[in-house]
């Protein structure tokens, strides 16, 4: 099913409205990733039977320590929310009040009071970070250097592309697919270059600005007011506001 064009065509026709077809394909990709990886490994090994002994002797397993940190926020997320709204060219009107009442509510109370955000380095970035800090480079034919069992989030996909270009390596495939999610606890590698950080922040800012403006149009037209979509939008807004708050904090 994963590789079937007929199946994808049927999905696109049955679920022609909304993004249900994309969601089905995403989860199909997710649940089939391990089986497809195993099939590829077995197929590769079958072509290199004479190397079984050497391959087995050279396999090394390592557990990499996670990297976590607490970010000190210099501004309350609720204040950042007001600035973001104005930066997107949106007015202080009933739409804003409806937006706050429906999707923000008391979401930022904890962050406003503590001004702290717990963050961690996502697993795929941590693997790349380990390869860089240990000066490990065993691939010289532009093949990919890491394998992951699910699609990277939106920020990880931007980050990996930047690291590929900056270090002239292929940590992961160049034409990155992403699960399009943005997580509030996402972070950069320690001592990352300012240019890479700024480039990703700028891309994220443009993306979020477009999404917010589109969201306002959606609210004005009341295209879809279902409880299910409201829950998804609520989580989405919670995440991107925290990220832009962090961006404004770093820029201040």
UniProtKB/TrEMBL annotation:
<protein>
    <submittedName>
        <fullName>Uncharacterized protein</fullName>
    </submittedName>
</protein>
<dbReference type="Pfam" id="PF14441">
    <property type="entry name" value="OTT_1508_deam"/>
</dbReference>
<dbReference type="InterPro" id="IPR027796">
    <property type="entry name" value="OTT_1508_deam-like"/>
</dbReference>
């Amino acid at each position: 099913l994963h590789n079937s064009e007929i199946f994808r065509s049927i999905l696109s026709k049955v679920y022609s409205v909304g993004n249900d077809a994309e969601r089905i394909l995403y989860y199909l990709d997710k649940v089939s990733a391990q089986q497809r990886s195993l099939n590829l490994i077995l197929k590769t090994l079958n072509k290199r039977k004479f190397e079984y002994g050497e391959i087995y002797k050279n396999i090394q397993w390592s557990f990499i320590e996670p990297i976590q940190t607490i970010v000190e926020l210099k501004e309350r997320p609720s204040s950042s929310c007001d600035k973001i709204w104005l930066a997107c060219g949106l007015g202080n009107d009933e739409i804003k009040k409806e937006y706050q009442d429906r999707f923000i509510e008391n979401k930022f109370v904890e962050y406003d009071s503590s001004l702290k955000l717990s963050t961690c380095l996502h697993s795929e970035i941590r693997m790349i970070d380990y390869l860089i800090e240990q000066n490990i480079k065993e691939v010289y034919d532009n093949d990919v250097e890491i394998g992951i069992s699910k699609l990277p989030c939106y920020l990880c996909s931007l980050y990996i592309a930047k690291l590929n270009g900056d270090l002239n390596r292929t940590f992961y495939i160049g034409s990155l697919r992403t699960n399009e999610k943005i997580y509030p606890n996402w972070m950069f590698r320690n001592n990352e270059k300012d240019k890479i950080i700024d480039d990703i922040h700028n891309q994220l800012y443009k993306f979020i600005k477009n999404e917010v403006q589109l969201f306002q149009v959606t609210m004005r037209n009341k295209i879809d007011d279902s409880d299910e979509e409201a829950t998804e939008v609520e989580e989405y807004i919670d995440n991107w506001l925290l990220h832009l708050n962090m961006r404004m904090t770093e820029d201040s």
